[in-house]
Write a structure and sequence with these properties.
Blueprint: H1 2-5, E1 8-11, E2 31-34, H2 39-58, H3 69-89, E3 96-99, H4 106-113, E4 119-122, H5 130-133, H6 139-147, E5 151-154, H7 157-171, E6 174-176, E7 181-184, E8 187-193, H8 200-209, E9 218-225, H9 232-245, E10 253-260, H10 267-287, E11 295-299, H11 304-313, E12 316-319, H12 328-335, E13 343-347, E14 360-362, H13 367-379, H14 382-398, H15 401-412, H16 424-435, E15 440-444, H17 464-474, E16 479-484, H18 489-496, E17 502-505, E18 510-513, E19 516-520, H19 528-540, E20 547-551, E21 554-558, H20 564-580, E22 584-588, E23 591-595, H21 602-614, E24 623-628, H22 631-639, E25 645-649, E26 660-662, H23 665-677
Parallel strand pairs: 1-2, 3-4, 4-5, 5-8, 9-10, 9-12, 10-11, 12-13, 13-14, 15-16, 15-24, 16-17, 24-25, 25-26
Antiparallel strand pairs: 6-7, 7-8, 17-18, 18-19, 20-21, 21-23, 22-23
Helix pairs in contact: 2-3, 3-4, 4-6, 6-7, 8-11, 9-10, 9-13, 17-23, 21-22
Length: 690
C-alpha cells in the first residue's frame, strides 16, 4: 500500500539500530520512522502484555491470560512512545492508520497532543464478548484508547458488536448500533467492518509457477504459525478420529502439518510444541506402516512459492483454529486452486467463515464432526468441489487486499461521525426502571454541568431553558434537588437563586437547605488565617491572566486565561504554595483548588445530605442521580458506585467512575427535562414531607 501511495511506516524495526544507521525501503518509495525498543520493552510490552494478556484474552482463552501490572505499565509507556514518534512524522498526514492490539493506547496519547488529527484503527484479531473482555483490569483504558479514533475497524460484524457492547456496558457510552457510532462524552467514533483480503493475483500466479512434486497419497494440509489459538492438537486428534471412523483412508491419506516457529521465548508456546511433538508420535506410532506414516509434521518456515505449490496440490485444506480474527491461510488456499479443485474445511470460529460459506464449516472442538467433514471432503465429487471453490475464488479475487485498503481509507476519510442529541427513549432506557416507584434525590454540580465553562465564574449564568428544567424537577413532590459546587456557599445560593433547593458549597464543607440543619465542617476554624495567608501568596504569582478566587475556607487559582504554553508552570507554582500552607492541591478545569486536608469531599457531602433527608437507611428509601463534570465530582462518583446513577459531563480526556457520560450541558438539560416530566412516582413519602 505504501509503495503505491507513499507515506510513512512507523514501527519497531525488530533490531537495535546503531548510531547513524537507518532502515531503508525498497527504492525508498516511502519513509520509515523506527521506534526503538529495549530488552525490557520487548519482554514486558511485546511478549508480556501484548502476547500473554491481550492475545489470549481477545481470542476468548482466559485460561492462558496473565494480568501483570508491570507489563501494563510498560505497554502504556511504549504506546506513548509510538504516539510521540507518530506526532513528529505525521502532523500533516490526512490519516494516521494505527494497527492491531499492540497499539490500543496510542490513539489516546495522539488525541491529547493533537486534537484535530484524523485517526483510524484496525484490529486484526477478534474482539471478545463483554463477559470475557471485562476480566481485564484495564478494560476502560483500552476502550478509551480506541474511542479516541475517528474510525475503528474490525474483521467481522460480531467483533464490532462485541466492542460496542463493551463500550456501552463498561464506559457507559452512547451507542447507535444501526449507524455503528459510539459517543463517549465529547468523543464520537465510527465503527466499521472491513474483512481483510489477500494479494489474490500474486498467490494465483505463484501457484501456477510452482514446481510440481509427485505425491503417492492424498494430502490433507494444515498451515499455521505455532500458536495455541490455531487448534493444531485438536486437528491432529480429529485426523486420528478419521482413521478410526473410516479405515479406508489408512495408507491413502496423510496429514501434512506445517508449523511456523513463533514466540519461542514464551513458555506456553514451548509447551505447545512439546504437546504437538508427542501427539504426532502417538498417532504415527499407532497407525504407521513400513511404507506409510499418517502425519508428516514440519516445524519450519517455507518460502511463499513452495507454499503456493503445496496449497495447489493439497486435496483438502484443514483450517481449524479455535478462534481467529480472519485467517488468511483459508484465502491463500482458495487463490492457489488453479488445477483439480480441492476442498476447504474451515473452523466456524474463524472470521473467514463469515464470508467463505462454501467451505465445509466445523467446530474444532467437535472431533467426530471434524473427522466426518474431512471424510466428506476426501470423497466429494469433482463437480461439487469445483462449484464450491469457484464461488470462493470469485469473492476473494473481488475482495482482495487492495479492495480492503480502498474500503478502509474511504471510510477513514469520511466526515466526522455524530450522534443525534440524547433522546427521551435513551433516557428512559437508562432511568425509567431505576427511578420507578421511588422518590428521587438529584445532585447537580454547577459550573460545566448546568452552565458551560466560561472564562470567569461571574459569567456562568443559568440559561432560561436550564432554569425551567431545574425548576421542573424541584417542583415535584417526589424529587429533591441539591446543588453541590466548588463555589462558596453564599455565591452558589445567590447565583442559582431558588429557595427550595439544598446547596452544598466549597465541595460540601458548607451545606444548607429546606428542612436540613445548616452544616459547616468543624475543622474549618483552623484554616481561616491560613486561607488569608495563602490568598496573598497566590496573588503574588498571579500574572498573565492568572487570578485567585477566595471562597472562605477554600481557594481556587485560575489559569484559564494564561497562555496555554505557560499554564503548567503556573499550576506547579500554585500547588507548591498550597502544600506549603498546609492545604491539599486538587486539579480542576484550568485551575488548581486549595482544600483543607480534613477528609471531606463531595462524596461525604452527598452522604451527609442523604442521611439528613432520609435517615440512615436512605439507600432503601430513595433513588439517587448525580451529574457533574469535574475531577472533584469523581469523589462523589466513587462514593455512589453501586448506589446511584451517575453521569460525567464533557471531555472524555479524563477517566471517570461515572456510569455514563454526557457530551455537554445541553444533554444535562434534556436529562432534567425527562426527570421533571416523568410520571409521578407512587412511592413512600420523602423524609422532608413526613
Amino acid at each position: 500500500m505504501l509503495r503505491r501511495r507513499g507515506g510513512t511506516w512507523i514501527g519497531w524495526p525488530g533490531v537495535e539500530l546503531k548510531k547513524g544507521e537507518r532502515v531503508s525501503t525498497r527504492a525508498d518509495a516511502y519513509r520509515i520512522a523506527p521506534v526503538p525498543l529495549g530488552e525490557t520493552d520487548i519482554a514486558r510490552y511485546y511478549h508480556g502484555f501484548s502476547n500473554r494478556t491481550l492475545w489470549p484474552l481477545f481470542h476468548s482463552l482466559p485460561g492462558h491470560t496473565q494480568f501483570v501490572r508491570k507489563d501494563w505499565n510498560v505497554y502504556a509507556d511504549v504506546n506513548e512512545r509510538f504516539a510521540g514518534v507518530a506526532m513528529r512524522h505525521a502532523r500533516d498526514a490526512k490519516l494516521v492508520w494505527i494497527h492491531d492490539y499492540h497499539l490500543m493506547l496510542t490513539p489516546e496519547f495522539m488525541r491529547r497532543a493533537h486534537p484535530e488529527a484524523r485517526l483510524a484503527f484496525f484490529l486484526h484479531i477478534p474482539f471478545p464478548p463483554f463477559d470475557i473482555f471485562r476480566l481485564c483490569p484495564w478494560d476502560k483504558e483500552l476502550l478509551r484508547g480506541l474511542i479516541a479514533c475517528d474510525l475503528i475497524g474490525f474483521q467481522i460484524e460480531n467483533y464490532a458488536h462485541n466492542f460496542m457492547d463493551c463500550a456501552e456496558q463498561i464506559l457507559g457510552a452512547r451507542v447507535d448500533r444501526e449507524a455503528m457510532i459510539i459517543e463517549d462524552g465529547d468523543r464520537v467514533a465510527r465503527v466499521g467492518v472491513f474483512p481483510i483480503g489477500i494479494e489474490f493475483d500474486l498467490f494465483q500466479e505463484q501457484a501456477m509457477k510452482a514446481r510440481r512434486e509427485s505425491q503417492r497419497e492424498r494430502v490433507v494440509l494444515g498451515v499455521d504459525r505455532l500458536d495455541y489459538t490455531k487448534g493444531i492438537p485438536e486437528r491432529i486428534r480429529a485426523f486420528e478420529r478419521l482413521l478410526e471412523l473410516h479405515p479406508r483412508h489408512k495408507g491413502n491419506v496423510v496429514l501434512l502439518q506445517l508449523a511456523v516457529p513463533s514466540r519461542s521465548q514464551v513458555t506456553e508456546y514451548r509447551e505447545l510444541k512439546s504437546e504437538i511433538d508427542e501427539l504426532v508420535g502417538q498417532v504415527n506410532g499407532r497407525f504407521a506402516t513400513s511404507t506409510w506414516s499418517p502425519i508428516r509434521y514440519l516445524y519450519r518456515s517455507f518460502p511463499q512459492e513452495r507454499l503456493c505449490g503445496l496449497y495447489r496440490d493439497a486435496d483438502v485444506a484443514l483450517v481449524t483454529p479455535l478462534r481467529d480474527g480472519m485467517n488468511l491461510v483459508a484465502k491463500e488456499y482458495v487463490a492457489c486452486q488453479v488445477d483439480d479443485p480441492g476442498v476447504l474445511v474451515l473452523s466456524r470460529m474463524a472470521g473467514a467463515a463469515e464470508t467463505m460459506r462454501e467451505a465445509l464449516q466445523v467446530n474444532p472442538f467437535d472431533l467426530d464432526g471434524t473427522a466426518e467433514a474431512i471424510h466428506r471432503a476426501l470423497t466429494m465429487d469433482e463437480e461439487e468441489r469445483a462449484s464450491r471453490i469457484a464461488a470462493m475464488r470469485r469473492r476473494e479475487r473481488r475482495d482482495d487486499v487492495e479492495a480492503w485498503v480502498e474500503h478502509f481509507l474511504a471510510a477513514g476519510n469520511e466526515e466526522a461521525a455524530h450522534l443525534d442529541p440524547i433522546s427521551e427513549r435513551e433516557l428512559q432506557q437508562w432511568l425509567r426502571g431505576y427511578v420507578k416507584s421511588y422518590p428521587l434525590c438529584l445532585f447537580l454540580d454547577y459550573d460545566g454541568t448546568l452552565t458551560p465553562l466560561v472564562s470567569h465564574p461571574s459569567k456562568a449564568k443559568l440559561s432560561k431553558e436550564m432554569r425551567e428544567a431545574l425548576m421542573g424537577c424541584s417542583r415535584r413532590v417526589d424529587t429533591d434537588v441539591s446543588i453541590v459546587s466548588g463555589r462558596a456557599l453564599d455565591d452558589i445560593r445567590k447565583i442559582v437563586g431558588e429557595p427550595n433547593l439544598v446547596y452544598a458549597g466549597n465541595h460540601g464543607l458548607e451545606i444548607e437547605g429546606p428542612e436540613i440543619a445548616r452544616f459547616r465542617h468543624q475543622d474549618l476554624v483552623h484554616y481561616e488565617a491560613r486561607a488569608l495567608e495563602l490568598f496573598g501568596a497566590l496573588e503574588a504569582i498571579a500574572n498573565e491572566g492568572a487570578w485567585t478566587e477566595a471562597k472562605g475556607p477554600t481557594l481556587t487559582f485560575h489559569i484559564r486565561e494564561v497562555p496555554e504554553a505557560r499554564q503548567a508552570r503556573y499550576a506547579q507554582k500554585a500547588r507548591a504554595l498550597m502544600t506549603e500552607h498546609g492545604y491539599q492541591a486538587r486539579d480542576a478545569h484550568a485551575a488548581v483548588e486549595a482544600r483543607p486536608p480534613i477528609g471531606w469531599d463531595k462524596g461525604r457531602a452527598v452522604l451527609h445530605i442523604l442521611r439528613e433527608r432520609y435517615g440512615p437507611n436512605w439507600s432503601e428509601r430513595v433513588r439517587v442521580i448525580y451529574v457533574g463534570d469535574d475531577q472533584t465530582d469523581e469523589d462523589a462518583f466513587r462514593f455512589l458506585a453501586g448506589l446511584a446513577m451517575t453521569f460525567r459531563v464533557g471531555s472524555a480526556d479524563t477517566p471517570t467512575g461515572a456510569l455514563h457520560r454526557l457530551p455537554d450541558v445541553e444533554a444535562v438539560r434534556r436529562l432534567l427535562d425527562w426527570v421533571g416530566m416523568r410520571p409521578l412516582t407512587e412511592a413512600t413519602p420523602t423524609q422532608s414531607s413526613l
